[in-house]
Write a structure and sequence with these properties.
The complex is a heterodimer of chains A (10) and B (215). Chain A is mostly loops. Chain A contains no helices and no strands. Chain B is globular and about 45 Å long. Classes of the chains: A little secondary structure (10), B mainly alpha (215).
Chain lengths: 10, 215
């Protein structure tokens, strides 16, 4: 499942 | 990646390095709250569950490993290192941080972006991080002597989230439908908790005095 963009942050 | 987020990550990295340096070199954790450190270790454990399954970038993975490694080693030092643990002020570090964990978990189960295990744990880590500094701020109020390194540690920890807020504003205006209320609200609450600390920190810096918080 495509990881929502917001989880590209630490 | 934008300058605010990079500055935020570097400030956050610097805060944990300042703390590790203090504990490792002078073998003392005076004025540091073990409860806050344990909460942060839990925050990173809950947030970085997908560190090996969801590769984003080398930078992202390396930073996650650093944050996980540093937070757990700080907890290890304060709990088990025979010299460091002696300087831990457990009579003063009495904030019942377990009372923070459960409400954050319940809230994450109620308010989240997607009701999956990973997403709930990620949301839990956001809520927990927002309040993780409380035991440390309470301890600072109690211990009169706030040494420079501990003061700098708390300041940097607060500054990193403030920079992240600028990052969210920037991303909101530059990326279509980049909207994450949960992240924004918990990040704002987290930064506001530092407000009075920032005020006294700035006052002490301006008057070139030792930092002390009113009882």
């Amino acid at each position: 499942d495509e990881q929502p963009k917001s989880h590209d942050e630490l | 990646m934008n300058i605010f987020r990079l500055a935020g990550d570097m400030t956050h990295l610097f805060s944990v390095l300042v703390l590790l340096l203090k504990i490792h070199t002078i073998k003392s954790c005076a004025g540091v709250s073990l409860k806050t450190q344990e909460l942060y270790a839990l925050v990173f454990a809950a947030r970085y569950l997908d560190i090996f399954t969801n590769y984003i970038s080398l930078y992202n993975t390396v930073m996650k490993l650093i944050f996980l490694g540093s937070s757990f080693s700080i907890v290890w030092y304060m709990r088990y290192h025979k010299i460091v643990r002696r300087s831990y002020d457990k009579d003063q570090d009495t904030f019942r941080h377990y009372f923070l964990i459960l409400p954050c978990l319940l809230l994450a189960l109620l308010i989240n972006e997607k009701f999956t295990f990973k997403e709930v744990m990620w949301t839990f880590s956001l809520y927990l991080e927002a309040v993780a500094i409380l035991p440390q701020l309470v301890l600072l109020q109690r211990t009169r002597n706030i040494d420079n390194l501990t003061g700098q540690y708390v300041f940097l920890l607060g500054a990193y989230r403030a920079l992240y807020i600028l990052n969210w504003v920037y991303r909101y205006f530059t990326e279509p439908h980049f909207v994450h209320w949960i992240t924004w609200v918990s990040g704002l609450v987290q930064t506001l908790l530092y407000a009075d600390f920032f005020y006294y920190y700035f006052q002490s810096w301006k008057n070139n005095q030792k930092l002390h918080l009113p009882a």
